[in-house]
């Protein structure tokens, strides 16, 4: 093989890639990161749309491996904005001297496992790498889904995408703006654009349950309080199903009186953000229980939106609350009380095409100067399947995942030795505080690689049987919930031709952690180690 030689090549310089770089470097591996964008930060580098912020609390959506970092960084708001998160990423990169091993503007195009050397040859648009380990830290939401609306290229005004917002910003003042998409991105963007634009038209295909962020500044007393107990807070998060620290209510929504339930929902609505979904343990397990929460949210929409006809259009029906990832909003529904904001219900009047001057639905054309796509991502697998990845016997990852992603624990893939995915399909990933899940994976992977190194093994791979059993478990857990009852990016239904499979592991961060621990206790059960010409079991 030719090209630069490293122990580990990490693909992606978002949180997962940077944390992998830091940890593997600390463990003595020679590591390099390649990043297709021209700077670090991953999703937080590209998703610069107005209003973009994290809807996991800042204290929890932050790296936990360094107590000094935790103490010195001062978050300004309960939910950090995208620019603040990017400043944090830069701070982390400088503090831990990460940039020297990050190769920007370098896109992985192809990787092939060499069965004779046990190494990966990785071709990029800037040359070739030769790596023992290939760590895919490419993110869950980094490839945009094509909305597939005819005429998109015909629009003569300005076209924007939330995940590709211009770095210099976009001046929307005095403009007629249209937004297609009402997921988390659209829901955050819409109130901000409404304040700036002359007129806003929101094109909604599926109304979304959204819970209020109740965002606000963090004062010094609160900051000191959190920092005094940070280690406990982190441990609580690791031991919670969501990775957010919420203690699930052991009661069923159906075993309490209507008054008691309403009181709890009111309290959660005022305080919990995402935690609303955990108000009762069975909200994602039982349709009748879920209906109580869905009815509550619909009643809130009716309270917030003045015009009953508009409120009715904004009320989600036909899918369980939470089965599509609920946005956490700041004034989304109230935005529709403005005279300069219109809602177009695409279920009533579908888009026919985009024209040079606007969007034409079956009710006629809406004239626009700016058209914003907030139309989402080819989630979980998009970035993993974009490059060609060739494993044992010439099988490609695309072939291996023909019927949906198959992994062992969301980390390893049978037939693709020495390839690892951070927070991949089959792990809690997007169903959790993803930053916590990323850190857990990186630490676990580093331990696995140390284990192999200690035994002189140079090839680590998931056993096909272990992978098959894990896939079965991931599917069975999902089938026991309400998640598969909605079309969503969790199910891959937003991308034409994608297999309809629930991709994350739904058993929660706490349960997943126990599984990882038991795999270690059993000598990395399910991973095969080999090297120096002999096959060895992991233990
Ligand atoms: P999304 O949740 O997939 O929403 C995409 C929206 O576009 C949906 O409303 C979808 O409608 C609509 N859409 C797609 N194609 C369309 C078409 N051809 N015509 C009309 N409408 C169309 O994507 P997202 O809002 O970018 O959010 C993705 C994820 O990113 C979030 O769930 C979250 O995990 C993450 N995110 C996080 C934050 C945060 O932490 N604050 C912020 C933004 C995003 P249908 O529902 O009918 O398909």
What are its keywords?
five-stranded parallel sheet; FAD/NAD(P)-binding domain; alpha/beta; binds NADP nicotinamide-adenine-dinucleotide phosphate; disordered C terminus; globular; 539 residues; FAD-binding_Monooxygenases; eight-stranded mixed sheet
Report on this model:
It is a single chain. By secondary structure, the chain is of the alpha/beta class. Among the domains are: 5-40 and 98-143 and 379-535, 3-Layer(bba) Sandwich (FAD/NAD(P)-binding domain), CATH 3.50.50; 240-304, no CATH class. The chain contains 15 helices and 21 strands. The chain has helices spanning 15-26, 43-46, 67-72, 82-95, 184-196, 220-228, 230-238, 258-271, 287-304, 308-314, 382-385, 397-400, 434-454, 464-479, 508-521; strands spanning 4-11, 31-34, 102-103, 108-114, 119-124, 127-136, 158-161, 176-180, 199-204, 211-212, 328-329, 341-345, 351-355, 358-361, 364-367, 370-373, 388-390, 419-421, 459-462, 527-531, 534-537. Strand 13 (351-355) and strand 14 (358-361) form a beta hairpin. It is globular, with a radius of gyration of 23 Å. The model is unreliable at 533-539 (pLDDT under 50). The site of NADP nicotinamide-adenine-dinucleotide phosphate has 27 residues, from helix 5. Its cofactor is FAD.
């Amino acid at each position: 093989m030719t090209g630069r030689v490293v122990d580990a090549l990490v693909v992606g310089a978002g949180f997962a890639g940077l944390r992998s770089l830091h940890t593997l470097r600390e463990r003595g591996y020679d590591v390099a990161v390649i990043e297709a964008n021209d700077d670090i930060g991953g999703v937080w580098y590209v998703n610069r749309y107005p209003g973009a912020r994290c809807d996991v609390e800042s204290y929890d959506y932050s790296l936990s491996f360094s107590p000094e970092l935790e103490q010195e960084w001062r978050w300004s708001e309960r939910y950090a904005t995208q620019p603040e998160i990017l400043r944090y990423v830069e701070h982390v990169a400088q503090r831990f001297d990460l940039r020297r091993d990050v190769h920007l503007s370098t896109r992985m195009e192809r990787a092939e496992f060499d069965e004779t050397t046990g190494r990966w040859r990785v071709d990029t648009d800037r040359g070739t790498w030769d790596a023992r380990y290939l760590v895919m830290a490419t993110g869950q939401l980094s490839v945009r889904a094509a909305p597939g609306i005819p005429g998109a290229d015909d629009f003569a005004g300005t076209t924007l995408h939330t995940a590709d917002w211009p770095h210099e910003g976009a001046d929307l003042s005095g403009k007629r703006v249209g937004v297609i998409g009402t997921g988390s991105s659209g829901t955050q963007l819409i109130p901000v654009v409404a304040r700036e634009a002359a007129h806003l038209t929101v094109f909604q295909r599926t109304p979304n349950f959204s819970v209020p962020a109740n965002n606000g500044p963090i004062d010094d007393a609160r900051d000191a309080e959190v920092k005094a107990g940070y280690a406990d807070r982190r441990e609580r998060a690791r031991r919670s199903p969501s990775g957010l620290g919420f203690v699930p209510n052991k009661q069923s929504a159906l075993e309490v009186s209507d008054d008691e339930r309403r009181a709890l929902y009111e309290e959660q609505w005022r305080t919990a953000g995402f935690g609303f979904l955990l108000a009762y343990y069975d909200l994602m397990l039982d349709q009748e229980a879920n209906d109580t929460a869905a009815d509550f949210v619909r009643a809130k929409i009716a309270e917030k939106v003045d015009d009953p006809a508009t409120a009715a259009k904004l009320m989600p029906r036909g899918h369980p609350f939470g089965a599509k990832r609920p946005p956490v909003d700041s004034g989304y529904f109230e935005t529709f009380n403005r005279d300069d904001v219109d809602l177009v219900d695409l279920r009533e009047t579908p888009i026919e095409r985009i024209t040079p001057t606007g969007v034409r639905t079956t009710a006629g054309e809406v004239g626009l100067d700016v058209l914003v796509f907030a139309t989402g991502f080819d989630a979980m697998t998009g970035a993993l399947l974009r490059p060609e990845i060739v494993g044992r016997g010439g099988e490609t990852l695309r072939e291996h995942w023909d019927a949906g992603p198959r992994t062992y624990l969301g980390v390893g893939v049978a037939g693709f030795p020495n390839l690892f995915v951070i927070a991949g399909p089959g792990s809690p990933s997007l169903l959790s505080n993803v930053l916590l899940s990323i850190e857990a994976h990186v630490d676990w992977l580093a331990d696995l690689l140390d284990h192999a190194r200690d035994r002189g093994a140079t090839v680590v791979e998931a056993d096909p049987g272990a992978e098959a059993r894990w896939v079965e478990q991931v599917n069975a857990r999902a089938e026991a919930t309400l998640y598969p009852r909605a079309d969503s990016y969790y199910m891959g239904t937003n991308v034409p031709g994608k297999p309809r499979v629930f991709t994350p592991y739904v058993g929660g961060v706490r349960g997943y952690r126990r599984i990882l621990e038991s795999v270690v206790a059993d000598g990395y059960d399910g991973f095969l180690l080999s090297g120096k010409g002999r096959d060895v079991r992991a233990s």
